Amino acid sequence: xxxxxxxxxxxxxxxxxxxxxxxxxxxxxxxxxxxxxxxxxxxxxxxxxxxxxxxxxxxxxxxxxxxxxxxxxxxxxxxxxxxxxxxxxxxxxxxxxxxxxxxxxxxxxxxxxxx
Length: 115
What we know:
This protein is mainly alpha-helical. The protein is about 65% helix and about 0% strand. One of its GO terms (molecular function) is DNA binding.
């Protein structure tokens, strides 16, 4: 089955959501008191520039790395993955959690308060 080209509106939404995810991750990193280099080291990355790219919305945290990122940031891995899913795959998030009135930003505030 071939993939169809993404329409411009969906591409713009995806880009916007990636930037929002990046801002959320940057806030979580700063709340944990880590630099990009420190987070890269804790997550086993060779270069901090990957963290920078993710925070700028140019990349995303790979699924297989989400648990270690969450632990490095002092966050619950399940909530971390769920929050990223909301940004990275909004349709899947809606299908799985529709009706679950969860706000992304209060989660960040709650996690920062616990740190």
